[in-house]
Amino acid sequence: MSFFTNLRFRLMYRRGLTPWDSGVPPPELIEVIEGARRLPAGRSLDLGCGTGTTTTYMATNGWQATGVDFVPAAIRTARAKAAATRLAVAFLVGDVTRLRDLPIEPGFDLLFDQGCFHSLPEAAQPAYAGEVDRMARPGATYLLYAFGRQPERRRRFFPKGVTPDEVRVLFSDFELVEARPGTDPFGSHWYTMRRR
Ligand SMILES: C[S@@+](CC[C@H](N)C(=O)[O-])C[C@H]1O[C@@H](n2cnc3c(N)ncnc32)[C@H](O)[C@@H]1O
Predict the structure, then answer these.
(1) What is the pTM of this model?
(2) What confidence score (pLDDT) does residue 187 get?
């Protein structure tokens, strides 16, 4: 884990600087949970789950959902929100690049990441990809939202981002089924991948 990335996120949660924390699941997730591309409910893993909105949404729809985030305050909020629903949702404080340190079994049917992967230092991305590979059962769906490559002048405020080609290379154990352009910021995509 990068100490500085961890510290930055801890400070952001402490100060309430969490513009991503919309409190509603994105349409792209709704589509695979209860919409046109609906998957049969199974085990889901929410990587960098923040305050757990998407994890608990999956649990509400019959999924056995687990959320992981390395900011304890975010996980405390996630647990409190889930408790209000009386659903069993597992929230763990941990590093998504070191999932082997956590008490979770591989074999997930759905892996979801909205905004965590692109926050990782570039050097940590292969470890993350290795953990995603290990956690997914063959045929599993991996839904990833990631920023596209940002110009140098924006990198003080935005992560560097990735291109669809880089995603294809990094997650080579997955078939890239779709790279749907997002709107904000420029170059972002919703990637749908399937574990080979
Ligand atoms: C942009 S936020 C998105 C949070 C959540 N997915 C959402 O959409 O509300 C990125 C999240 O990834 C978490 N994160 C970043 N790097 C991480 C790591 N190495 N291990 C675990 N969580 C991490 C941050 O703490 C933060 O909650």
Answers:
(1) 0.97
(2) 86
